[in-house]
Amino acid sequence: MKKSLLLLAAMAFATASFAQTTPTTTQLPTHRVHRMGKGEHKTPEQRAEHRTAMLTKKLSLSADQQAKVQQIMLAQTQEGQALKAKYPAKEQRQALHQEMKAGHAKYQAQLQGVLTADQYGKLAAMQKEHHHRGEHGDKQKEKS
What we know:
This protein has a domain at 44-132. The protein contains six helices and no strands. It has helices spanning 2-19, 44-59, 63-86, 93-114, 117-133, 139-143. The longest helix has 24 residues, at 63-86.
């Protein structure tokens, strides 16, 4: 009888100790990982390369188009960086926004000259969807 009680107590202790351990497997996040300050840690060249790769994938750009789009994206990111340095204060955000908006229009016109009509239509649709979804995508709609 003593042996069976001792065995039962040992099993209860072992079960309790296993129940309190947490699994060591790392669960991958199911949501987008927070962007480190919206790409502030990337160089303009890296941002232009990333954007060109994304457009190449989504719009099926030719090698010639890739090179031209890369140059446009590089110029746009460099100009954006220069504008952010020119207007560092929060009070200057309106002026920064206006200049960036003008620059965006200029680079859109350049892209329109490089892309086919079909590709530019897809780009415009992607930008419109991105603009309407905001940074957090459809997750904002789910919360509402």
